[in-house]
Amino acid sequence: MKLQMISLVLMSIGIYARMMKHAEAAMACLAVDPAILLLIVGVLMFFITFCGCVGSLRENICLLQTFCIFLTIIFLLQLAAGVLGFVFSDKARNKVSEIINNAIVHYRDDIDLQNLIDFGQKEFSCCGGVTYTDWSQNMYFNCTTDNRSRERCSVPFSCCLLSKDEAVINTMCGQGMQELPFLQAGAFIHTNGCIDKLVNWIHSNLFMLGGIALGLAIPQLVGILLSQILINQIKDQIELQNYNLQHRTDPWQ
């Protein structure tokens, strides 16, 4: 029941966030839309937990098999993603770069995406994908002469080197930073890209990530095992009932 409540909360947040956006902006960055991700995860969680809960209560073999199959598929997909990500690390890095660059392009189109990028840049102390000049890919931040935006050649405030003593954040601190050389810009903003920072963070937290992966895998394996045990028990009960019906003696004969 707790998992079902969590899944309903995720679905509600995803639907609310989706409805609060402009349709054009949301469709433009569908591949990295946090609202869509929350909605998909919520629906999937609710369906799987519903099958497991109702199947075990009603002793329904069909629902229990559905629950077991979906858990197995999710487990295998997680395992395959981990193995492929390790074996084809260069391709995985290129895919991450593509996602980040797409997010930069649609930075101003989606408020959820904007908050997510700002959080990532502040958390990892980085700016852009590979370097801070990647923000030229955004129509508001690019340095072309025909760009009349007030943010021309700038970077988001989340790229700035903020002081802990600073009570009010200057959201225009990234003004004109793309026009500065790398070393000179480094005095005001984070010049290194987020991809390298993310890779370094993963390498330095491999044990923690492994623990999280194991923590996700064990409940899935336990669920698969217990559902199979329950399915076998139900089948044995059905076979026993059929056997008793076939060999039942009539006391009036």
TrEMBL record:
Top-level lineage group: Eukaryota
Biological process annotations from GO: pore complex assembly; protein localization to plasma membrane; protein maturation
UniProt-listed Gene3D superfamilies: Tetraspanin
Disulfide bonds: C126-C159, C127-C143
One GO CC term, this protein: plasma membrane
Pfam families assigned to the protein according to its UniProt record, in alphabetical order: Tetraspanin
Bilayer disposition of the protein: Multi-pass membrane protein
Location within or outside the cell: Cell junction, Adherens junction; Cell membrane; Cytoplasm; Membrane
GO molecular function terms listed in the Swiss-Prot or TrEMBL record: enzyme binding
Keywords, alphabetical: Cell junction, Cell membrane, Cytoplasm, Disulfide bond, Glycoprotein, Membrane, Transmembrane, Transmembrane helix
Regions that span the bilayer: 35-55, 67-88, 206-231
Cited PANTHER family: TETRASPANIN, TETRASPANIN-33
Family designation: Belongs to the tetraspanin (TM4SF) family.
Full protein name: Tetraspanin
Organism: Oncorhynchus mykiss (Rainbow trout)
